[in-house]
Amino acid sequence: MTTQTAPQREEHPRGAVAVEVTGATRVFQGSAGTVTALDGVDLTVGAGEFVSLIGPSGCGKSTLLRLIADLDRPSAGTIEVFGRTAEQARLAHDYGIAFQQAGLLPWRTVRANIELPLAMHGTGRAARRERADYLVELVGLAEFADHYPDQLSGGMQQRVAIARAVAEEPSLLLMDEPFGALDEMTRERLQGELVRICAETRAAVVFVTHSIPEAVFLSDRVVVMSARPGRIREVVDIDLTRAARSDEGLREDAAYFAAVTRVREALHHGSPAPAQGVELR
Amino acid sequence: MTAARTAAARGLPPVLLLVALLAAWQTVVVVGQVPAFLLPSPSAIGSELVALWPTISSAILVTGGNSLLGLLLGALTGVAVAVVAGLLPSADRMLQPFVAGLAVVPIVALAPVLYTMYGAASEVARVIVAAIAAFVPVFVTTTRGLRQVRPVHRDLMRAYGATPRQATVTVTVPTAVPFVFTGLRLASSLAVISAIVAEYFGGPRTGIGSFITTAAAGSNYARAWAFVVGGILVGLAFYGVTLAAEHLVRRRAGPRAR
């Protein structure tokens, strides 16, 4: 594994493809029989594009994200990340990742946690420190740089996790319900911060959520999935500019509400019972 | 300042209780004219303690030295074997029943056998008994600790393309460390107890346990009790040091490393 092999952003001009999922199927063999978590999913995410995956619990949205991250392998189908296999992309540190749990190392300070991926991939001490200084500033935690994670609130820990995810300036960010465990106010503030960070890093994002407003607020496209077996039901384009998104007034905008309604209808389309596990707030 | 004061305030009630108990003990012995072989008075034990302090302190050093050596030996072996078991599932399957068996064997019962093996003038048998007693809890807690890596951390290491070595150093070992120290605290008391009790079964007459049996056999009951106090001091010292070490490590590791 060589260091510093992460491709520069310039190699991926807009219009290039960040993620190409073709016919991805994932079947889990359990003691209670087989479960088809994903069934023939096709998805393309352009460079710099923000795509949310939304759907009821068990629709395979997290499974799809884990396949892209090469944390899991598909039973059938292929996954390409910037033109290479998911495994090659993982080993080349092509993506940054954040989970629902912040997953910080409790024995490391905030700064050391943010530096973790850089340290593991051989970035020098001085460069690491400089990058961490910039990132704690970016997520508004400069005065907490030398604190330990258990001294921070859940929202602050999640901000550290996001800083860690973007530490290597990845061209792709994979986020699995990063705000799922947070209260609504913290959640909205962090969404705003994520929009700002994405505008700055111009990374493509695959974002798993089960909050409709969150998906609409953040995304260029919302991929609506259905459960058992996990399939893509509909892809909803959200025509809100990024500039509009950085404005908190957007949440009260008519276009925003219209988009929320479209996603909601896509979720409920064809299912007589209301989709379970989806937050309609 | 305030921390010192709260510590003092928390420490005061137990000390008061101890003083009250000693006073009650003294009163019962004096007023009830309890014979010394039944229960010597605290003042008699205290004066023996002072009179024999040179002997008691050297006995403390001998027993403490045996316990410490045994603890280190047992703990290092425990950690090493647990690491091997963690890396090789087959070794783990082989070791688990073996260790469970070792845990129920009355280890001090080995002492007489070991004395014949290593000679009655040697401290080796006592060190070995203490080491075996210390090995079990350290092995058990370390094995558990090495399995506590959270799934999110495992995913993170995989996402970073970490080598097994990197993952071990970055996540597995730091997660296990607080568990190792908990095992060490449990092992420290066991090592001291085992080292003392092993002395009851023979060997050189140098340690706390030897002197307790000698004094009791010679009807010097207050003296026997004075050596018991010496044994308590050894036990407290070991427990206190390992408890402090555990607290230090735990604070560093945060509340999540249960």
From TrEMBL, chain A:
It comes from the Bacteria. One of its GO terms (molecular function) is ATP hydrolysis activity. The keyword Signal does not apply. InterPro entries: AAA+_ATPase, ABC_transporter-like_ATP-bd, ABC_transporter-like_CS, ABC_transporter_ATP-bind, P-loop_NTPase. Keywords: ATP-binding, Nucleotide-binding, Transport. Residues 19-252 form the ABC transporter domain. This is ABC transporter ATP-binding protein. It comes from Actinotalea soli.
UniProtKB/TrEMBL annotation, chain B:
It is found in: Cell membrane. The keyword Nucleotide-binding does not apply. Pfam families: BPD_transp_1. The chain crosses the membrane at residues 56-86, 98-118, 124-146, 167-197, 224-249. It comes from the Bacteria. Keywords: Cell membrane, Membrane, Transmembrane, Transmembrane helix, Transport. Residues 56-245 form the ABC transmembrane type-1 domain. Belongs to the binding-protein-dependent transport system permease family. Its main location: membrane. PROSITE patterns: ABC_TM1 (PS50928). It is a multi-pass membrane protein. GO terms for cellular component: plasma membrane. InterPro entries: MetI-like (IPR000515), MetI-like_sf (IPR035906). This is ABC transporter permease subunit. The lineage of its organism: Bacteria, Bacillati, Actinomycetota, Actinomycetes, Micrococcales. GO terms for biological process: transmembrane transport.
